[in-house]
Amino acid sequence: MMRVLVTGSGGPAGRALIAMLAERGLDVLGADMAPVMGLPVPTRRLPAAADPLFLTELGALVESESIDLLVPTVSEELPVLASAVARELWPHACGVVIGEADAVRAADDKLVTAQRLRAADVSVPRFARPSQLSSVVEATSWWGAPIVLKPRVSRGGRGVHLLSSDRDLDWRMIGDDQIVQEFAPGIEYAPVVYRPRAGASGDVTVVLEKSAAGDRIRRVEAPDVAALALRAAGALGLTGPVDVDVRRDPAGRPVVLEVNARVGANVGLAPELVDAMLADHARLAQETGPAWVT
């Protein structure tokens, strides 16, 4: 029986994915930097991705537990692990569900994401570095109010601010580790994508729509959003699972807000993605052996 290790087992994505894999009869192990309760599978502790021992201890866990497939779900782990795989510093004979290092780094930085998508003619809100603007007033004079200010590297909506006036903050204190973005006021979507590695067929896209209050989410048919999410993943060169944030602009056009190179928190509503991931693993393991990356 295939053994699967899911990191971030205490988070929404990790919990949902573990449940779905266990339902499929797989032998699943969770891992997290904090103790995790209430899972249907055993869990192990790992250091944070920024810890110098992260890769060493993750690799030791893979070896000691005879893991066949590793699925990271923690944003901070992705650049570390992708870089290790690219530099051949990950010698372990298991499949790793992660994209190429350059694509993962691009998705990890919201400014780089926006720049690459715009260059590929994928619709994004207008954006700038804070140093390119003198104030909130200048930004709103170009794009209307409110504007969005958020960290270039973050997850889960952390550090996101809607600004309408210079009274909201002291612009001089804002560095270029942030991105300024035009606000898209329309319906919000969380499409999930799976792109197989090595040009194989079988792309999967499921569009999820968030309620106005953000407390409910449901599957919907929105072909323009599905096409945009798939184009965004392809423009960045991402393979494997991709979680995309999309809103409609004032004209009703969908625009990409950000892209996450991993399984997202709403994977439970997209079982097709998990089936595609497992099918991709089986194909790659047969073609290239047990050690592969998506």
From TrEMBL:
Keyword ATP-binding attributed: yes
PROSITE patterns: ATP_GRASP (PS50975)
Domain ATP-grasp: 114-290
One GO molecular-function entry: metal ion binding
Keywords (A to Z) from UniProt: ATP-binding, Ligase, Nucleotide-binding
One Pfam family here: ATP-grasp_3
PANTHER family hit by this protein: ATP-GRASP ENZYME FSQD, FUMIPYRROLE BIOSYNTHESIS PROTEIN C
Name the UniProt record assigns to this protein: ATP-grasp domain-containing protein
Organism whose genome encodes this protein: Ruania alkalisoli
